[in-house]
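Let's practice the habit of predicting before peeking. Look at the sequence and jot down your guess about where helices and strands might fall. Then scroll down.
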Amino acid sequence: MDEKLVEEMRKGSEADRILSNPVYKEAVESVRKGIVDAMASSPMGDDKTHNRLVIALQLVNQIDRNLKSYMQTGQMAKIQASGGAVQKIRGIA
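Done guessing? Here is the structure:
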């Protein structure tokens, strides 16, 4: 099997495990809530703090998106790997 597919499947499985972990989910939601609460309580004219909080929120969201992307890529790699196995079986039959 192609080493790249194996690595994508490994990363995808690990990302799925992380995303499914209740502690991870709780931690991410807690961080998001903390950032949003800080945004809501920051003074209207404090653009510097607001901008930093927006960047922090974007970073948290990007980490989550990257993990989801790894998971989806891993799922596609599994399909591709199993499709290759099916093609080999069909070639034999």
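How did you do? The helical segments are 3-20, 22-41, 47-92.
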